[in-house]
Amino acid sequence: MATFADWVEGARVRTLPAAAAPVLVGTGAAYDLGFGSVPRALLAGGVALALQVGVNFANDYSDGVRGTDDVRTGPPRLTGSGAARPGTVKAAAFASFGLAAVLGLVLCALAGTWWLVAVGALCVVAAWYYTGGRNPYGYRGLGDVGVFVFFGLVATLGTTYTQALTVSWAAVAGAVGIGLIACALLMVNNVRDIPTDTVAGKRTLAVRLGERRARLGYVAMVAVPLVLSVALAPAHPWALLTLLLVPVVLHQARVVLGGAQGRELIVVLRDTGLLELGYGVLLGLGLLL
Q: How far apart are CA 283 and CA 56, in angstroms?
């Protein structure tokens, strides 16, 4: 029987900052356009958080029933470890998706953007088929594309659009930056799992690139967002607040390129999530100012 702590671990709290960051940047961009809304931002945050938890439980279920999580270097999963029944974990995933859908409908009603309901439905489909279904795209090295699109572009620009009914180049740059750091989260997680994923036939981008190039990819994913902030500086000088994160990025790069393995990469995963949150806070504030 899974404990409350097991369910919290199953929700993968280290990844949850990835849900808040795009909303912060998207809201800052909306205020920059003169149409920010705290209630709509909170609803967008609720949608993003529920989707993130849902995809984490969905991955737990799908990888568990496939046997991908039978041998792990990271924390045990609910399904793979036998702590919870697969059907219960699957139900938790769809309960989270359901909550995201309800909050999304309320947000669309307030904003009058009913066409975004279709985008929300696509987000749920993408979340499930990342590791679910007969031919999951996460097993073919396309998971990073899904993360970039849905947890970067869609989450950030959707937040801005539901408040301002338009988007700006600053919002697009912020969305790309957020998407890249979200991909870095996935990359460091998959670098840690290269040995077991290879055996299980899970061909993530990290597996396809090989360990060295995957580590270099991680560094690029956390560095480019800072370059984008510098590019925004002529029109949005406060975007340079994100340069406060340079020491964090350098430290993370040094650890990853230094060959960190196993549980050391769990710390990197946590710190990358915090890096994404910090980027969201600082760039969102920079755009607002």
A: 26
Which domain, by its residues, includes 82? 4-288
Give the pLDDT confidence of 8-53 residue by residue, as tens digits: 888 888 778 778 999 999 999 999 999 999 999 999 999 999 999 9
- Which residue is it, tokens 């999963």? 77
Q: What average pLDDT score do residues 259-271 get? A: 90
Residues 145 and 134: their CA atoms lie apart, in Å, by 19
What is the rounded CA–CA span in Å between residue 130 and residue 103?
22
C-alpha torsion angle, residues 208, 278, 40, 183 (rounded to 10): 0
Q: What domain count does the chain have?
A: 1
Q: What is the pTM of this model?
A: 0.94
Q: What one-character DSSP code corresponds to residue 132?
A: -
Tens of pLDDT, residue by residue over 136-171, are 898 899 999 999 999 999 999 999 999 999 999 999
89-113 as b/e: b if 16+ CB within 10 A: bbebbbebbebbbebbbebbeebee
The number of helices, as runs of H, and strands, as runs of E, in the chain is 14, 0
Predicted local distance difference test score (pLDDT) of residue 274 = 94
Q: How far apart are CA 51 and CA 120, in angstroms?
A: 10
